[in-house]
Design a protein that fits this description.
2 domains; 8-stranded mixed beta sheet; 4-stranded mixed beta sheet; 10 helices
């Protein structure tokens, strides 16, 4: 089976965990172990989140005043390379002679996407309300609640086309394990003259993973995060996990924007467009999610 595995940013860096290189390497080592198990019997393509890492680079850039901070598309490219390198190295350690490649990936969005006037995508660390409001004033950020805390939010336009899709397909067909479309891909628009340029945005990693999976016509899409399943009434005493559902059933429920909602939309889109299967759940349950023994498995009736 050919599978797109999407590693959530919180699967690589736990909530509240210091954003040190050592912590990320330790978490990625666990991620690589789960992926290596899948890769022994399936063709795997990997994508990943990068919200905490982009936010950290943006904060670090703010401390050096000699130059203007780099835009989000450049920061996305930096984190795509950094995280891809760490995943690639760990997979090589666990898979022996298997060829593993990280590919910086540009993803086209529309310049008139309404998201550019309504920032919603959380990136970076969490803040108290007072800290977030201070940073919003100082840096011109948009902020939004994230549980009991606050985070910066940025535009999240819809992914339209993966520019390096042909190269990804050739690598996969050659038996290479490809890490690509990291952090949703580097957001670019096509100019009136046919060129491309980066834009100040972050593409939702789950919707980009669904686009990758659909474009490659894979059989399965796994969104791996730090929760064990999709829950109805999340955060309340009435919360119940959903284990085996159809896209139609999932769409009857409401989920948190910027958190579970894009994951649900991504798996619904993939299953509806390809007839494949999709799963959402914990990183360590990857194989069990694929077989329907853990997590939330989504497929047509």
């Amino acid at each position: 089976m050919r599978i797109v595995v999407a590693l959530g940013g919180n699967a690589l860096l736990r909530r509240g965990e210091p954003m040190t290189s050592e912590n990320q390497q330790a978490n990625i080592r666990l991620a690589a172990a789960a992926i290596a198990t899948l890769a022994q019997t399936h063709d795997v393509i990997i994508t990943h989140g990068n919200g905490p890492q982009v936010g950290l680079l943006a904060l670090q850039a703010e401390t050096y005043k000699a130059v203007q901070p780099y835009p989000l598309d450049v920061l996305n490219a930096e984190t795509e390379g950094m995280i891809g390198y760490l995943i690639e190295q760990e997979l090589r350690n666990q898979l022996g002679d298997r060829q593993v490649v990280t590919l910086l990936t540009q993803v086209e969005v529309e310049g008139n996407d309404p998201a550019f006037t309504h920032p919603t995508k959380p990136i970076g660390p969490i803040y108290t309300q007072a800290e977030a409001e201070r940073l919003a004033t100082e840096r011109g950020w948009a902020i939004a609640p994230d549980g009991k805390n606050y985070r910066r939010v940025v535009p999240s336009p819809k992914p339209q086309r993966i520019l390096e899709l042909g190269a990804i397909r050739l690598l996969v067909q050659s038996g290479v394990l490809v890490i690509c479309v990291g952090g949703g891909g580097i957001p670019v628009v096509v100019t009136p003259t046919g060129g491309i340029r980066g834009v100040e945005a972050v593409i939702d990693k789950d919707l980009a993973a669904a686009l990758l999976a659909t474009s490659l016509t894979v059989e399965a899409l796994l969104l791996l995060t730090d929760v064990d399943a999709v829950y109805t009434d999340w955060g309340t005493p009435a919360a119940q996990p959903l284990h085996h559902v159809s896209p139609e059933q999932l769409r009857h429920y409401c989920f948190a924007p910027g958190s579970m909602a894009p994951k649900v939309e991504a798996v619904c889109q993939f299953v509806e467009q390809t007839g494949g299967i999709a799963g959402i759940g914990r990183l360590e349950d990857a194989t069990a999610i694929l077989t329907g023994q853990a997590g939330t498995r989504v497929q047509l009736p």
